[in-house]
Amino acid sequence: MSGYFTALSSADVLTELAEADPSVVLVTQDFGPIGSFTARFPDRHFDVGISEENLVGVAAGLAHAGLRPYVLAMSPFLTMRGFEQIRDDCAYNRNPVTFLAPFAGLEAGPWGPTHHAIEDLALMRAIPGMTILSPADPGEALRAVRAAVSIDGPVYVRLGFLTPIDGYEAALRVGEVVTLREGRDLTLVATGGPVGTALTVHDALAADGIGARVLNVHTVKPLDHAAIERAARETGRLVTVEEHSIHGGLGGAVAEVIAECGAGRLTRVGVRDVFCTEVAPYPELLRLHGLDAAGVERAARAALG
Fold first, then answer.
1. Nearest Cα to 37, choosing from 5, 15, 61?
2. For the chain, where do the domains classified as CATH 3.40.50.970 start and end?
3. Predicted confidence band at 3 (pLDDT cuts at 50, 70, 90)?
4. Calpha distance 49→88 (Å, rounded)
5. Given this model, what pLDDT does residue 43 score?
6. Global pTM?
7. Percent of the chain scored above 90 by pLDDT?
8. What is the DSSP annotation of 209-276?
């Protein structure tokens, strides 16, 4: 499911939260009416148009006034154009603003590098006090929206292309990874949509007798250091999988953990140090950058030596 439609489907959750809490408001970027929320609370939905710096500033001002803003805006423009306002107006002031950011990663496809968000995790990770949620499927995305309301300070909810994971209904506990599969030969550490890809790779490896642990890192910050260190010590080899640059995102965060604990070897699967300039459908972009199941499987087998 497109991250945009996942964001729109969160309208019912936001409506429920707004029913219980009169401080919940919605600020959007030229997206028009947002489902049941706009229908039920038209006076609590503020659409400021395509002006990301102003968008974040308005949300911060509403938070200063005692409200609980949810912001809906495209990931690449929100994080890059609005970075200073997110940093200074929201994080520095500990304002409880939740950012719902669809079109993360390469989902915008043929719209080109200007519309790709492959640096957003790196940008948000660098901001003190920022919580980063990166759900693995549409159901978990809705749980992330619910969880954000109880978090002190700003929250970034990354919404890329998400495919439902059969039977996955685990509670989202901020800061705790979910172990989806056990294994002792290596660990696939994934976030967002690539979690589903990691599960596919797990099955392919299992057919050859290789046990791959699969971790769903739905909270990139604060990262579950204990689970990462445990996987490094117990399986020895870790492969991070993310629809993001290999620099500064999940791969960078995991590298920091294993460097400090002195255990494990790491392979990072993501967009290399390049812009994604190919004009192609989204699945083809994943293939070209080694982020489809075949590419992740190759990286996992190479990590095993």
1. 15
2. 3-159
3. confident
4. 21
5. 97
6. 0.97
7. 95
8. T--EEEEE--EEES--HHHHHHHHHHHSEEEEEEEEESSSSHHHHHHHHHHHHT--EEEEEEE-SS--
* 49 CA to centre of own chain: 24
- Report, at the CATH architecture level, how domain 178-303 is classified: 3-Layer(aba) Sandwich (3.40)
Quote the DSSP letter at residue 103.
S
Which strand (E) or helix (H) includes residue 70? strand 68-72
Q: Which of 174, 193, 167, 170 is closest to 282 using CA atoms?
A: 193
- The answer to whether 37 and 7 are in contact (CB under 8 A) is no
Beta-carbon count within 10 A of 167 CB:
6
φ/ψ (deg, to 5) at 303: -65, -30
CB environment 236-246: b (16+ within 10 A), e (fewer): bbbbbbbbbbb
Query: What contacts 92, CB < 8 A, 6 or more positions away?
Result: none
Q: Does domain 3-159 have CATH number 3.40.50.970?
A: yes
Q: What is the pLDDT of residues 55-110, one digit of tens each?
A: 999 999 999 999 999 999 999 999 999 999 999 999 999 999 999 999 999 999 88
Closest CA to 191 of 146, 243, 143: 243
> Is the preceding omega at residue 222 within 30 degrees of 0, hence cis?
yes
- Calculate the dihedral angle through the C-alpha atoms of 283, 285, 289, 290, rounding to the nearest 10 degrees: 10
Question: For residue 22, with 0-12 CB atoms within 10 Å meaning exposed, 13-18 middle and 19 or more buried, which class applies?
Answer: exposed
71 vs 117: CA distance, rounded Å:
17
Q: Which pLDDT score, from 0 to 100, does residue 165 have?
A: 97
Query: Within the chain, which residue ranges are assigned CATH 3.40.50.920?
Result: 178-303
Half-sphere exposure of 34 (CA within 13 A, CB side): 32
